[in-house]
Amino acid sequence: MKVNVVLFGTMRKYAKEDKFQMEFEEGAKLSDLLDRLKIEDRVYIIVLVNGRRADEDTVLTDGANVHILTPVGGG
Amino acid sequence: MDEPRWVGARVSRIDAADKVTGRLKFMSDLSFPGMLWGAVLRSAHPHALIKKIDTSKAEAIDGVVAVLTHKDVPGLNGFGIVVPDQPVLCFDKVRYMGDAVALVAATSKEKASEALRAIEVEYEPLPVVDDPEEAMLESSPKVHADGNIHHHIKVERGDVDAAFREAAVVVENTYYTPRQMHAFMETESGVATMDEDGNITVWCGSQHPFRDQLQIARALGMNPRKIQVVSTPTGGAFGGKDEITVQIYLALLALRTGRPVKIVLSREESAVAGMKRHPMKIRMKTAAAADGTLLANEVRVVADTGAYASLGGPVVNLAIEHSCGAYRMPNVKLEGFCVYTNNGLAGAFRGFGANQVIFALETQIDMIAERLGMDRLEFRRKNALRQGDVAALGHTMTASVGAVATLDAASKCEIWVRREELKARPSAPHKKRGVGIATELHGCGLGVGLPDYGAATIELLPDGRFAVGVSCPEIGQGNTTAFAQMAADSLGCSVEDIVMVSGDSRYTLDSGTSTASRSVYTGGNAIRCAAARMREAIADVAAEALGAPREEIAFGRGSVEARSCPAGEPTRSAGRLSFREIACIAESKGRRLKTEGDFIWPVADRGVEGYFGLPHLIYSYITQVALVEVNTLTGEVEVLRAVSIPDPGKAINPVGIEAQSEGGVVMGMGYALMEDTVIEQGITKTPNFSTYIIPTSVDAPEIETIIVEELEPSGPFGAKGIGEAVCVPITPAITNAIHDATGIWITHIPATAERVYMALRKQAGEPAGA
Question: Domain end: B553, B579, B600, which one?
């Protein structure tokens, strides 16, 4: 299955492009995606899967949109 | 769906009775058996190396349970929303007087204070960096090893130099704005507990419990799932509780002692250690053609962010975004610097960078109008953005735009229509009256490059009411009442049937911050989504229970019914079930109806290359008008009347909008006339309300709020956000009114009696010191 990934802000350092696709076997979890991107510091990050906060145990589905960012603020 | 019954109605706040009777427990009111008092040892110097910390004498005091230093921070010894450059507990140096060096927990407040006094810290003082422009020089002492310029943004569009050459009028000035204090009623306070499984709960007023959870987890080296943060109710925040305040200290002390620990900052400690609005020096050069068309704006902002970054970078970005206001501006050259000094700490504050630049811009606008001989309001209307326009940063204004509508309403308000008559009647011969006007647009949400998301939960309770969960904390702005109104209309029930759950990282889904004029828009859209799913779930239960086809289930107020409608016959009810009955039926089958909704903000069609958080797609708009009276003998300025004309999109609760508007006017008035945290050589000279002057009820003028609703199609029921804009243009409306009264221009706020008096003397050609 294919998953759409977008990296924001400082998380862009983990890939050559900001937006890309990744392929996984059925049943893959978010932790597999983070492993493959070599994102080791996972305490202060937010991952949205299809627009919702997700944790590492979240099972990915075909066509899922994954946004990875650090917590942000602003006005 | 039926016409809204609750949205748009003047609904009393759902937390009003508990607040006015004192029943509501704020975080500083909480108490637990065996609770200890925590306290923070702050720095003794604004800039110094730490040579030695000796806690032995403090530890020996009877009643002192724990004394912690940097060695006791198990995880990352740093915090900060964007970059964790602020130590939890300082180890090598201190950078401002509010820096935390040690923590204590003791059996009483007095014992905790005694322990703080007994901690011995050896410092080696360093030169104090207190001027942001000097701090930018390479030769300046470094507050942080990487240099004193934390953030720099530069945006150019068009050709400002050509525009200045061709312009009929060019106005150039330097503006100075003060370090405003949030002055929330409840200082930074809270309690932390730890259970037998090592789970920590932190009750602490703040603006984003889920982000606090991650910052605490990072410092404690713990799994965030073992940390719960509860942030509702918060006794006022205004941006000053967006960053971590005492949450990590509380969690560290609870972790060490295993007992509940409470910290309540004194007002003086809050004033020294807490966040402030960025003081800015703004150089602005603005040009217009002879027909009054604005041509160009060149802006240079230097912001003093104090010792640590917090949200200083985003604040400067938004200052740049808002520096051309609600106007078409085809040529811009905008530059901003966010600079470290040893002057306290600056970060998020209602308005988020707009207050400073709008004060400058709206003064420029009045100056240009005067030079061109044009009416101030007509000049603004001529240049105001319309839907479809390209804004200063190059993005297209595709969302609702209420700039002209608020100006039109201002043109009809009494103090504008009757301004000459009102000005002609001062209360004494030595007093002069003037009327000022100012307008702005204000970005809602987090802007391009920062995904802005929200989520809500709705659960049908056994008694037929609905529990609605949105994490954006209730910080006094009334968002839970607006959420309840939107939920009631989305579900088809009464506001009284909504039980709001807010600001709790365990019992709600992450819906982001209560900042950025975003919570009603975000939470409302997420509620709409969850409510639609709840109605589907209720309809499923009803269809099965009534034996009716699913498509024949219709919603009434607090109930559903099956309508059979054979061809050619009038609709009739075939059975009705209340929501309580639906809950009972579901319960009998072992089900609880619970749904979730989510939402992601739309963003502008283009960003600014290399930067995040700007521009915005959705803006609220506001025009404010002030009538002032200036005492020409003393320089004292009194605001007699103010009119506030916000465009919040749909006013979910007009009473709430009026309350925001009135509070905003008074806050913006304090910024214009009174408030400034004076820091000299890194030392705060105004640490309490005896020296830091804020407006009181005696100072508050008569305030009229006229709501203009330019509905936003992407908003819940057409709503946008209005929490920040209400305090912004009132400041230049007041200073422009001072000009209208006296002829002097105010370029340095607050316009204290002393400043106004000296300007009047200068105007009269008298020496300042005579």
Answer: B600
Give, in words, the CATH class of A2-69.
alpha beta
Give DSSP secondary structure letters for B505-536.
TTTS-----S-TT-HHHHHHHHHHHHHHHHHH
Question: Nearest-CA neighbor of B260 among B28, B31, B505, B503?
Answer: B31
Shortest CB distance from B516 goes to which of A52, A71, A75? A75
Does one domain contain both B674 and B552? no
Is B599 part of the contact surface with chain A (CB cutoff 8 Å)? yes
ipTM over the 0.95 cut-off: no
Mean pLDDT of chain B: 96
Give CA–CA dist B255/B159, Å, rounded: 59
The residue range of the domain holding B685 is: 280-447+607-763
What does the alpha-carbon distance between residue A55 and residue A40 come to, in Å, rounded to a whole number? Answer: 14
Q: Do residue B586 and residue B660 come from a single domain?
A: no
**Per-residue pLDDT for B770 more than 50?**
no
Whether residue B592 sits in one domain with residue B614: no
Per residue in B266-299, pLDDT tens?
999 999 999 999 999 999 999 999 999 999 999 9
Q: Does A38 touch chain B (CB under 8 A)?
A: no
State the nearest Cα–Cα gap between A8 and chain B, in angstroms: 7
Residue pair B726/B664 in contact by the 8 Å Cβ criterion: yes
Q: What is the DSSP string of B406-458?
A: HHHHHHHSHHHHTHHHHHT--SSTTEEEEEEEEEEEEE-SS-TTS--EEEEEE
B322 lies within 8 A of chain A by CB:
no
Nearest to A28, CA basis, from A53, A9, A56, A8: A56
Among A9, A55, A67, beta carbon nearest to B612: A9
Q: What is the pLDDT of residues B420-457, one digit of tens each?
A: 999 999 999 999 999 999 999 999 999 998 889 999 99
